[in-house]
Specification:
The complex is a heterodimer of chains A (209) and B (248). Chain A has 209 residues and is an all-alpha fold. In chain A, 71% of the residues lie in helices and 0% in strands. By secondary structure, chain B is α+β, with helices and mostly antiparallel strands. Chain B folds into 2 domains: 108 residues, Ubiquitin-like (UB roll), CATH 3.10.20; 131 residues, Fumarate Reductase Iron-sulfur Protein, Chain B, domain 2, CATH 1.10.1060.10. Chain B is built from 8 helices and 7 strands; from the N terminus they run E-E-H-E-E-E-E-E-H-H-H-H-H-H-H. A 5-stranded mixed β-sheet of chain B has the order 2-1-5-3-4. The longest helix of chain B has 17 residues. The termini of chain B are far apart. The chains are: A mainly alpha (209), B alpha+beta (248). The interface between A and B is large, with 38 and 45 residues.
């Protein structure tokens, strides 16, 4: 859970940094997308590194889901008889309680997101358009409901990270002074959430066109 | 005050068990929760019924015997408190209180509210000790211990093994209990020679007993009557990982 999650966090940081290039204009954004496919060429084949990274991500996501299922099954096995009274949470943490179902929601969001931005199936511009055009068309003001869906999903990802980041450090035995680390995890989650939110919002509100 | 109790009644390990409703009158706010149950039991005995079985011993909050899920919270609503130190002044006339045993596969119900916590004993037997030649008591300062380590080890050693951590954990994990013991011994010089093997043996025994996996929800430390901190689990994980890397 912790190791596969850490891989996905590093991906999110890179993904957010790439997204923010949209503010530098169409050329810069498309150039970045093209560069991703050309890194290391001619030492590596076209899309070589990108394909490798994509494969790594798929493995990380599969491992993350597998760990979650194993943990949930162990939990169900460990408590065959449920409490009759509603168990009241005494720990602070909405983020913690939404990890499992939040994870499922994020999974469906990722599928839609890939259909929208990567494969262009759910995007008005389609697969042939440049990444910049696809992005701008995807979040155009008329498609505000898509933006709302993205905002809700990104907030879910932020909540998932808020518990996940700290929890991963704890699982790996690195979290000794946990109030400090908890604050750090909250800070990084907030940063990623905001970083991911500004792009679709900027497009929907016409700042980037 | 007059209260309505819904108490888990189960005649033995093979009985299905059910919540039974009792009306109890004239409860004094000065009574402890267990004294309130004593009064209920006296009335049940006078009426010729079977009294409610529950674990208790010192009634001073230090033995770790009392173990009740009160309205869905282990040891009831007061923080850092065992059930025996919870007093009826926290309730008001007309309240309904649901009382259940700890729920976990490794803690099978013996009768009513009594569960068998031998799984904890087996975790301790797996490595919760130090191997020293037992003879006359050593000199007080023969082994110096840094003050901060001594304090942190003592905080972990205050764990009374009541099992509230398991009862409150949504995963039914015993990580806080096991981590408290590993931290207690792992911080002291006397615990160093067996530090790695202890962590591995205790964690493996914990898993073998059928406890769930830790997802760091923090529910355990929130109900722990001794306030054992979650940091102990990070220490357990660190010791376990280090030992696993060394011996492969």
């Amino acid at each position: 859970m912790a190791v596969s999650g850490a891989v996905l966090v590093f991906f999110l940081v890179a993904h957010m940094a790439g997204n923010l290039k949209i503010f530098a204009g169409a050329e810069s954004f498309n150039g970045y997308a093209a560069w991703l496919r050309e890194v290391g060429y001619p030492l590596l084949p076209h899309r070589g590194l990108l394909t490798l990274l994509e494969a790594g991500l798929v493995v990380a996501i599969a491992a993350h889901m597998y760990s979650a299922i194993v943990l949930a099954r162990r939990a169900a096995h460990a408590r065959p008889v449920k409490y009759a009274a509603k168990v009241r949470s005494r720990a602070d943490g909405y983020a913690t309680r939404t990890m499992r179902w939040g994870g499922v929601i994020i999974f469906f969001f990722v599928i839609y997101h890939l259909l929208d931005m990567t494969f262009g199936v759910a995007n008005p511009e389609g697969h042939a358009a440049t990444p910049f055009d696809r992005m701008v068309a995807g979040f155009e003001p008329a498609r505000w409901y898509i933006t709302v869906f993205y905002v809700i999903s990104v907030v879910m990802v932020g909540l998932h990270l808020r518990h996940g980041l700290w929890s991963a450090l704890q699982t790996l035995g690195l979290a000794r002074r946990h109030p400090v680390l908890k604050a750090g995890a909250t800070g990084l989650s907030a940063l990623l959430t905001i970083g991911f939110l500004v792009v679709p919002l900027a497009i929907t509100f016409g700042v980037v066109r | 005050m007059n209260l309505t109790l819904k108490v888990w009644r189960q005649s033995g390990p093979d009985d299905d068990g059910r919540l039974v409703r009792y009306e109890i009158e004239d409860v004094s706010p000065d009574m402890s929760f267990l004294e309130m149950l004593d009064v209920l039991n006296e009335r049940l005995i006078l009426a010729g019924d079977d009294p409610v079985a529950f674990d208790h011993d010192c009634r001073e909050g230090i033995c770790g015997m009392c173990s009740m899920m009160i309205d869905g919270v282990a040891h009831g609503p007061q923080k850092n408190t065992t059930t025996c130190q919870l007093h009826m002044r926290h309730y008001k006339d007309g309240d309904t209180i649901v009382i259940e045993p700890w729920r976990a596969r490794p803690f099978p119900v013996v009768k009513d509210l009594v569960v068998d916590r031998s799984a904890f004993d087996r975790i301790i037997q797996a490595g919760g000790f130090i191997s020293v030649p037992a003879g006359s008591a050593p000199d007080a300062h023969a082994t110096p211990v840094p003050k901060l380590d001594a304090d942190a080890a003592f905080d972990a050693a205050t764990c009374i093994g009541c099992g509230a951590c398991v009862a409150a954990c949504p995963n039914g994990s015993a990580s806080l209990f096991t981590a408290a013991k590993i931290t207690h011994l792992g911080l002291l010089p006397q615990g160093q020679p067996e530090r790695g093997s202890r962590a591995r043996a205790m964690v493996e025994q914990m898993d073998e007993e059928g406890f769930g996996g830790c997802t760091n929800t923090g529910e355990c430390t929130a109900v722990c009557p001794k306030g054992i901190p979650l940091d102990t689990i990070a220490r357990m994980n660190a010791d376990y990982l280090r030992a696993s890397r060394k011996s492969g």
